[in-house]
Hints:
Elements: H1 2-27, H2 32-55, H3 60-84, H4 90-122
Helix pairs in contact: 1-2, 1-3, 1-4, 2-4
Amino acid sequence: xxxxxxxxxxxxxxxxxxxxxxxxxxxxxxxxxxxxxxxxxxxxxxxxxxxxxxxxxxxxxxxxxxxxxxxxxxxxxxxxxxxxxxxxxxxxxxxxxxxxxxxxxxxxxxxxxxxxxxxxxxx
Length: 123
């Protein structure tokens, strides 16, 4: 279901985006590794979701609007991370970063299983 995948990306993207906002506090710039990890963990889900929505008969405008909304929510989450965690104890920041890292690892594992499944069906 395309919508279920989009919801998964949204739920996963919020803590990831908060961490990107927090990283702006600590170093003044977002690490390329963090951005690449977020991109790579969400790309297969985004493609699968868009494909699923297409097969469900959703319009391209609907799908694009949904993903634009998810991107907007992610951007707001980064802003919240930047504002809300300024001056917070390092232990709290470490907890948020660990939570987001776990979410990224989970999504990469799902993407790996999805890729293996698709490849097994192609053979």
